[in-house]
């Protein structure tokens, strides 16, 4: 992993460490939402919600678009893909260990 990719991943993981930001991502995963709607759904002030959205945008996890005078926020799937890719690297080892344990148990039952 390059230094830039590692830095981006660190930003994303730090952003995801906050429960309010994860709640915001749940609200905007179904589609673009204005700050006011997001704030109401997560029970935060608009100012606090805007701050968290800024962190999510900087981490590449949320994107903003404009609809007239409104700013709409949605999940940035590219940013989440980097996090998922990192986490997916843990599964092959665990699955191989599980397979080995099951095969070991099964061969012990036959002997």
Description:
- Helices cover 69% and strands 13% of the residues.
- With 111 residues, it is of the alpha+beta class.
- A three-stranded antiparallel beta sheet has the order 1-3-2.
- Helix 1 crosses helix 5.
- The model has no long low-confidence stretch (mean pLDDT 89).
The averaged pLDDT comes out at: 89
**Which structural class matches the secondary elements?**
alpha+beta
Question: Number of helix segments?
Answer: 6
Q: Taking Cα atoms only, what radius of gyration do you get, to the nearest Å? A: 20 Å
> Residue share in helices?
55-70%
Put the structure in a nutshell:
With 111 residues, this protein is of the alpha+beta class.
List the helices and strands and how they pair.
Layout: H1 3-16, H2 19-28, E1 33-34, H3 35-42, H4 46-58, E2 62-67, E3 70-75, H5 77-88, H6 91-110
Antiparallel strand pairs: 1-3, 2-3
Helix pairs in contact: 1-4, 1-5, 2-3, 3-4
Main attributes of the structure:
alpha+beta; about 15% strand; about 110 residues; elongated; three-stranded antiparallel beta sheet; 3 strands
């Amino acid at each position: 992993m390059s230094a830039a990719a590692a830095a981006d991943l660190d930003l994303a993981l730090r952003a995801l460490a906050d429960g309010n930001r994860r709640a915001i991502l749940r609200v905007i995963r179904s589609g673009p939402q204005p700050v006011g709607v997001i704030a109401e759904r997560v029970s935060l002030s608009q100012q606090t919600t805007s701050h968290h959205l800024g962190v999510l945008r900087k981490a590449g996890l949320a994107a903003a678009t404009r609809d007239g005078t409104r700013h709409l926020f949605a999940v940035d799937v590219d940013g989440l893909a980097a996090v998922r890719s990192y986490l997916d690297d843990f599964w092959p080892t665990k699955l191989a260990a599980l397979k080995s344990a099951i095969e070991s148990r099964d061969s012990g039952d036959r002997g």
